[in-house]
Specification:
two-stranded antiparallel sheet; alpha+beta
């Protein structure tokens, strides 16, 4: 312990020395980490994402030479950690392969890096198969617990209270980063739909009504409807925000006579059924199907209004499945 520090409001504050890291909950802690580690991108050749206390490297591996280059970057990171006396937590360092794997043993200093098939990244489970089933199951379990807790607290809901409860407690969990992990397997879609089925049955007087009638009576958007709607709203923001960093993901198709509108997006070529349902691919099908008045809405609020009117007659727009 250090001597007493300066006094504020007649109260003495004592200082202490942190053995490692920074005090939990501090405001400047993440900033100090970033300042301390902001030279790391200059040490590696592969792509890197640097957070306050987390580093992600990724590279396209096609040959053994690519493996060697990635290993050299790992060696550079380990040397940096020794110079700066900031050791890595080897138990949390893992390798995730997507696609065909080139056999190679990667190491971080004396530690051999383990391979994993699933890894959680910023709250979203990423699988080597690119399927979203693990994330969908995790979301279902989490929202089921929330819904069960709300049922114990409130018992039954009215037609006025349930929409507010869903918007406050259920949708933030179900729709967090959903553009990244949007389900495309039928079993995952059905699994997540159960949350809405169960929640709408908790409304007094609607228990015996069909699901579609319950949704309409409560003036709620179905989960599948909200996924498409969220994709299109995000795309509108990307295309209409000057210098948006994600604009490079979309390429405008050459103008031609169309039954919809003249601002069509080129659909990226994909291999494999799972990639056809990535955000950048699937949203092109949905946006190209919009009528003229929706695609050319002057602002976001008008776009939402026109979009709801349009999708109400065509609630499901999906990329065609491969044979």
């Amino acid at each position: 312990m250090e001597p007493d520090g300066p006094c504020y409001s007649s109260q003495s504050r004592r200082c202490f020395i942190e053995a490692s890291g920074v005090p939990r909950g501090s405001v400047l802690g993440p900033t100090l980490f970033l300042v301390y580690a902001n030279d790391i991108p200059n040490l590696v050749r592969c792509k890197i994402v640097l957070f306050a206390d987390d580093i992600k490297l990724w590279a396209s591996i096609r040959t053994s030479e690519d493996c060697v280059l990635l290993q050299e970057d790992l060696n550079a990171l380990y040397d940096w950690s020794l110079r700066n006396k900031l050791p890595f937590n080897f138990q949390k360092c893992k390798m995730l392969n997507i696609g065909k794997c080139v056999e190679f043993t990667y190491t971080l200093g004396p530690h051999r890096l383990a391979w994993t098939t699933d890894e959680k990244d910023l709250g979203v489970w990423i699988s080597s198969s690119l399927k979203t089933s693990l994330q969908c199951t995790a979301v279902y379990k989490r929202t089921s617990k929330i819904l069960a807790l709300l049922k114990r607290i409130f018992g039954r809901f009215t037609r006025q209270t349930l929409p507010s409860i869903l918007n406050t407690y259920i949708r933030p969990t179900m729709e967090y980063a959903v553009q990244v992990w949007s389900p495309w397997l039928q079993k995952d879609i059905v699994l997540l739909q159960r949350i809405y089925h169960r929640a709408t049955k908790l409304v007094t007087g609607l228990q015996s009504k069909p699901y579609e009638e319950r949704i309409e009576s409560l003036k709620l958007f179905d989960f599948c409807y909200r996924r498409i709607r969220g994709d299109l709203i995000l795309t509108y923001n990307i295309l209409h925000t000057p210098n948006h960093p994600l604009q490079k993901l979309f390429v405008r198709r050459e103008p031609r006579i169309s039954r919809t509108h003249d601002y069509l997006l080129a659909v990226p070529h994909t291999r494999g059924n799972s990639r056809r349902y990535f955000f950048v691919v699937r949203v092109c099908f949905a946006r190209n199907s919009l009528p003229q008045n929706v695609a050319h809405s002057p602002n976001l609020n008008i776009f939402k209004t026109n979009l709801d009117s349009s999708l109400s007659t065509q609630p499901k727009i999906e990329p065609p499945r491969s044979a």
